[in-house]
């Protein structure tokens, strides 16, 4: 068996020890004679898996007890509707900051449930930079301010936390959760699909400050009502049990590797290998403002796009997969989440140099 360097944007590479443990436990989880997939979510075995996953997630992210952690379904696109259904009702209005495709999608979906105001947009820079907060026009009567902390397609990331005063800050952290330390206390709500840094798709994590519960619009489906899910310990409906189990193994693994401070150092070192090379190259380019470059998703373009297919084919022959950029922007994209080893990024840069010397 040989494992490739998988640069997919998500579902994405997972830590090999986690996959091995899941494989070992597939038919018989800890002497129960059952796979986790076959267990009742109400049985003591699964309840212990769920409780350990939540405890480790809370510890990793240093989540205060005044916040609920919900294990939900529907993905981040689901949350684009679920967030406003639950939160916008307080005042009927919300601010959105647009830094790329994902935050634009969030704003569009929210407009079904209330009045959406674009507080800032990166349109002027063609979505290559985060607008500085001095340019934001925040509405003090907004129910919340929404950002996407890392634009997975555009490769633009917040490296600072906006100050929204008493208006709760909501962040889509799908593609950078668990990649670095953040101060949860500065947010009202954080959501993230699991399939980049946490585990398989099908699980969506929500961290919500308790005082924001209880404002759901009457149309909110009960399975998507944060308060009902919080009261039921995320078991109002059957949760995605197997995905929670694997995410729990990932949380344990990340703790063992030194937690989020260690992830941050590892991710910075990896991203630097790639960005340092891109800066010196006249064959490839990355147009993102240096201070806003994503440490997770690195889009880059060959100046001569006629070499794209040859570039991808050569990468594949060397065991480097899923480097094709998102269909909406073209070019290339290297997603280098927590579980991507630095050797993968070094191999990519080595290949990029070779390709350049052959075609440059
Ligand atoms: N937001 C961000 C930042 C994402 O990267 C993605 C998925 N790539 C989504 C939202 C949508 O996630 P899903 O398809 O799981 O709903």
UniProtKB/TrEMBL annotation:
The entry's free-text remark on the cofactor is: Binds 1 pyridoxal phosphate per subunit.
Q: Which UniProt keywords apply?
A: Amino-acid biosynthesis, Aminotransferase, Cytoplasm, Pyridoxal phosphate, Pyridoxine biosynthesis, Serine biosynthesis, Transferase
Primary localisation category: cytoplasm
Q: Read off the InterPro entries from this record.
A: Aminotrans_V_dom, Aminotrans_V_PyrdxlP_BS, Pser_aminoTfrase, PyrdxlP-dep_Trfase, PyrdxlP-dep_Trfase_major, PyrdxlP-dep_Trfase_small
Q: Where in the cell is it found?
A: Cytoplasm
Q: Which Pfam families match?
A: Aminotran_5
Query: Cross-referenced SUPFAM superfamilies, in alphabetical order?
Result: PLP-dependent transferases
Question: What catalytic reaction does the record list?
Answer: O-phospho-L-serine + 2-oxoglutarate = 3-phosphooxypyruvate + L-glutamate; 4-(phosphooxy)-L-threonine + 2-oxoglutarate = (R)-3-hydroxy-2-oxo-4-phosphooxybutanoate + L-glutamate
Residues recorded as binding pyridoxal 5'-phosphate, renumbered to this chain, are 102, 152, 172, 195, 237-238
**Amino-acid positions noted as binding L-glutamate in the UniProt annotation, renumbered to this chain:** 42
Q: Cofactors per UniProt?
A: pyridoxal 5'-phosphate
Q: In which pathway does it act?
A: Cofactor biosynthesis; pyridoxine 5'-phosphate biosynthesis; pyridoxine 5'-phosphate from D-erythrose 4-phosphate: step 3/5; Amino-acid biosynthesis; L-serine biosynthesis; L-serine from 3-phospho-D-glycerate: step 2/3
Function, please?
Answer: Catalyzes the reversible conversion of 3-phosphohydroxypyruvate to phosphoserine and of 3-hydroxy-2-oxo-4-phosphonooxybutanoate to phosphohydroxythreonine.
- Designated name of the protein: Phosphoserine aminotransferase
């Amino acid at each position: 068996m040989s494992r490739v360097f998988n640069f997919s944007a998500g579902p994405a590479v997972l830590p090999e020890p986690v996959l091995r443990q899941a494989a070992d436990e597939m038919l018989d989880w800890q002497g129960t004679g059952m796979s986790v997939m076959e267990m009742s979510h109400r049985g003591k075995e699964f309840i212990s898996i769920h409780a350990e996953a939540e405890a480790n997630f809370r510890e990793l992210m240093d989540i205060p007890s005044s916040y609920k952690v919900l294990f939900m379904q529907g993905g981040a696109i689901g949350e684009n509707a679920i967030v406003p259904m639950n939160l916008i009702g307080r005042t009927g209005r919300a601010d959105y900051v647009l830094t790329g495709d994902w935050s634009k999608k969030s704003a569009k979906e929210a407009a079904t449930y209330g009045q959406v105001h674009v507080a800032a947009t990166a349109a002027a820079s063609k979505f290559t930079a985060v607008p500085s907060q001095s340019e934001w026009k925040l509405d003090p009567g907004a129910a919340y301010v929404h950002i996407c902390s890392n634009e997975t397609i555009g490769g633009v990331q917040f490296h600072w936390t906006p100050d929204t005063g008493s208006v709760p800050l909501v962040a889509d952290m799908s593609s950078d959760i668990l990649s670095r330390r953040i101060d949860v206390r500065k947010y009202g709500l954080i959501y993230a699909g699991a399939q980049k840094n946490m585990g398989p798709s099908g699980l969506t994590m929500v961290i919500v400050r308790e005082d924001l519960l209880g404002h759901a619009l009457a149309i909110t489906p009960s399975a998507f009502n944060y308060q009902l899910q919080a009261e039921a310990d995320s078991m109002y409906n059957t949760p995605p049990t197997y995905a929670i189990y694997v995410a729990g193994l990932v949380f344990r693994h990340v703790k063992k590797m030194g937690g989020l401070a260690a992830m941050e150092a590892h991710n910075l070192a990896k991203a630097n290998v790639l960005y340092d090379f891109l800066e010196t190259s006249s064959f490839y380019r990355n147009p993102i403002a240096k201070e806003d470059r994503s440490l997770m998703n690195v889009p880059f373009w060959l100046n001569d796009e006629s070499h794209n297919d040859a570039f991808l084919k050569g990468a594949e022959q060397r065991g480097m997969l899923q480097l094709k950029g998102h269909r909406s922007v073209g070019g290339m994209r290297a997603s280098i989440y927590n579980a991507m080893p630095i050797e993968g990024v070094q191999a990519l840069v080595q290949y990029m140099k070779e390709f350049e010397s052959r075609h440059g």
